[in-house]
Amino acid sequence: MPRPYTTFRERYYVRSELEKDTVFALKDLPTRANLELRGVEWPAGDGALAFEQAAGRLLVARHPSLPVVRDAFSEPERAWLVIEPETGVALEPGSYGPEELRHWAAQLLDALDYLHTLEPPVAHGAIAPANLVLRPGNIVALQHYGPHVLVPGDTRSDLHALATTLHQLATGKSVPTVAEREQAVKRGEPDPVSTVAPFGPMLAAALALDPAQRPASARELLTLLEQAPVPASLAAVQTPPEPALTIASVEVVPQLPATPEPPPPAPPVEADDVSPVTPPGTPASSTTPQPPRRSRAWPVAGVVVTLLVLALTLLWPRMVPGNPPVAPVATLAPATSVPSAQQSTPITTTQPEPTVAATTPPQPTASPVPSSTAPLPAVTIARIAPQSVYAGRPFTITVSGTNLGALQTARLLAAEQSPIEVAILAASAGELTLRGEAVATLPAGDTTYQLELDGVPLDEPTLVLRDYIAQAEAKGIVAEYTATGRVRAIAGRLYTVLLAEPRAASAETGVLQSGDAVAVLDDQQPEWYRVRISASVDTAQIGKSGWVQRWLVDGGPPPDNEPPPAAPPAPFVFSGRVVNTATDSAAQCGANFKSTIYGRVLNDTGRPLRNAQISVASADGRNVYPATTNSEGGFSVSGLGCTNWVVRLISLPDPRPVQANPVTVRNLNGGEFTSAEVRFQLQP
Fold first, then answer.
1. What is the pLDDT of residue 375?
2. Which of 668, 655, 574, 582 is nearest to 625 (CA)?
3. Are 571 and 659 in contact (CB under 8 A)?
4. What is the value of pTM for the model shown?
5. 308: helix, strand or coil
6. pLDDT reported for residue 99
7. Half-sphere exposure (CA, 13 Å, Cβ side) for 650?
C-alpha cells in the first residue's frame, strides 16, 4: 500500500493522499512528471493473467477525451492504475449554449464508441459532470476511469450516464423522474427529455422509458445527434442583430448593356419641352412625337427599387438554408456571386458588404435584372473517422456531414509540411470516402492536419497522421530470458540492444530497458520490429531507433529457433570517488538548502566525456535530481539540503552498458558555501 512521502515501486514518489487508501498524487522520478495513482477493482478470472489482459487494453488506449494510463500493477487485494491527470476548466451545468453542448456531446460519444469497440470492450464507469474538464482547443475530457474499469461490464451503463450528464449540462437540473415523465405523456405533453436542446431526439432514445428501446451503442447515439435538426436558437445565437441603417441619399448605379458608343447628348430644352426617351431597339417613327408631360414618378421609383435591392442584400445571408454555420460542425458556406456560364460549387465563409454611395439617382433606363439563381446549399463537416491514421502506407478515412456530394477536391494541410492530395473514392450527400497514398516523410510522432475541401481549409475536425504503426511497451525483457543472450543484466538493470539491421550480428544503435515505451515504425520483417524509444528511464536513449525481435516487445517466450546468443559486450567500468569537499561551518543543518554537488566524468586518459547521465539522490530516495555532463565532462546539482546524498553514473551515449560504483556524499549541511566534488573515471 502506498504511503505519502515515500517511494513506491522504486519509481514513483508519493506526494500526497487525495482519497483515503485509493487515490494518491505521484511524482515520476525519472521524468519528473506529476501523475495520479488510482486503486481499481481486481478483475475476476485467472488472477494475474486477467489483470494483464484487462490493463493492457487501457495502456494502449489513446483518445483526446479519455485519460492516458501510463502504468498498471497489482497487489493481492487491489489493482492500481497510474494516470496522467487531466487539467482544464471544470464545467458548470446550465451555463453553455447549444452549439457548445452539441460539439462536446459528439466528442464524448466518439470516445465511448472507441472504448466500447475495443476487444474485449471497456466500460468507462465514471461519467458525470464533475468528472469532466474543458481542455485547450475546446476539447472536453473525462478525468479518470471508474473503480470497476478492469472488470468486464455492460457498456450501456456508460450511455445512460452520458445521457443524464448531457441533460444536466444543458438544463442545470437532474433528469425528471420516471413518474414525472409518464405523467407528462399521459397529459398529452411531450416527454420532458425530448425537448432539451440540442439533444432532444438523442436524449429521448438514450433515456427511453422502456430500457429495451434504448440504443445499444454509442455509434447509434452519435448518428442520432448528427441527424437531429439544428435548433433555430443556434442560428440566432451565432447571428448578431444588424445595426440600424440610416440612408441620407442613395445612388442607383445601373448596369447598362454594352454598346459601341453612347449617342451624343440632346441639346438643352426648356423645362416644359422634354423629349421622350427612346428605348434601345425601338424602330424610328415617321411621325413627330408630341411633347409629353414631365413624369415625377421615375425618381421616386428609382429610390424604391434601390432600397428593395439593398434590403435583399442585407437580409439574403439569413434567408439561405443552413447559413450561418452552426458550431461545432464545420461549414463551407456558398459565396454570393454573379452566375456565370460555368459555375462550380462556391465555398466561402464570409458575405460581401453592400456599398452605398450618396448622390442623385439617374433615370432608370437600363436597370439590371436581379439574378434568380438559387444559392448552393451549405456544406457541413461533422466528423472524420478514424481520427488518427498511420501514414506510412495508403490510408482511407470517412468524412461525415451534409451536402457533400458536389465536392470535387480534397487535401490535407499542416504547418511547415507539404500539402497531401487525397482522392475522393466515393461521395454522397452525407459521406465522403477519401484515400491518401503513403507519405514518404513525416515528423517523428503525431502531426495534426486540417482537411481542405474545394480549396477551403477547415479548422476542425482535424486528422492526426502518425509516422508509427502503434505504441507498445517492452514486456519481454525479463530475467527468465537472460539465458538467450538477448536479455542482459548489469547493475541490477535488465536491457536488450537495438540493432541497425534485422539480424543479430548487426551493429548496436541503442539500449532498450524493461518497461520502456516504443513506437513501432516497421512490422514487415518476420519476427522483427523496427522501433523508436519514446520513453525510458535512461533519457539519453529517448529518440533512438533500431530493430528488435518482436518477442522482446510483445512478451516471450522466445521462438524455438532462436540462434545461439552472441557474447554480450563488456561494460564500461568506471571508478567513482569524492575528490574534494568544502563545508560552511556557520550553516545550521536544516535551515537552508543551498549546498552543491559537482564533478566530472573522464575517460581512461583523462579526457572529458560529454552527455553522460548522472543521478544525484537523497539517501532515502525521496529526492532525485538528474544531470548531464557538458562538453568539459562537468555536471553540477545545487539547492541541496542537509542529508547524505548518493551520486551515480547511469549511462553514456555509447550503447554499451556502464558499471560504476555509487558515491556517497556525507558533508552537506545546506549551507551556501558547502560543496562536494565527485569524479568518475573509466578504468583501463
1. 52
2. 668
3. yes
4. 0.39
5. helix
6. 85
7. 23
Task: Give the per-residue pLDDT at 301.
Answer: 55
Instruction: Count Cβ neighbours within 10 Å for each residue of 396-428 and write b for 16 or more, e otherwise.
Output: ebebbbbbbeebeebbbebeeeeebebebeebe
Given this model, what pLDDT does residue 97 score?
83
Cα gap 396→625, rounded to integer Å: 46
Q: Return phi, psi of residue 282, to 5°.
A: -80, 130
> Is-contact 276 284, C-beta < 8 A?
no
- Give 312's contacts (C-beta < 8 A, 6+ positions apart): 370
Q: Which parts of the chain register pLDDT below 70?
A: 44-50, 76, 229-377, 490-492, 556, 560-568
3-state secondary structure of 597: strand
Quick check: do 379-466 and 470-554 share a fold?
no
What is the distance between the alpha carbons of residues 560 and 549, in angstroms, rounded to a whole number? 13
Q: Which fold has domain 7-83?
A: Phosphorylase Kinase; domain 1 (3.30.200)
Cα-to-chain-centroid distance, residue 343: 37
- Would you say 647 and 597 are in contact if contact means Cβ atoms under 8 Å apart? yes
In eight-state DSSP terms, residue 502 is: S
Please state which architecture CATH assigns to domain 572-682: Sandwich (2.60)
pLDDT of amino acid 271:
40
C-alpha distances out from residue 271 to 362, 427, 610, Å: 17, 67, 101
Question: Which of 573, 600, 568 has its CA nearest to residue 658?
Answer: 573
Query: CATH second-level architecture of 379-466?
Result: Sandwich (2.60)
Q: Which CATH class is domain 89-229?
A: mainly alpha
Q: What is the domain class of 470-554 according to CATH? A: mainly beta
Work out the angle between the directed axes of helices 98-116 and 156-171 (0-180°, nearest 10): 170
pLDDT tens-digit readout, 166-200: 989 988 888 888 888 888 888 888 888 888 888 87
Residue 120 is predicted with a pLDDT of 77
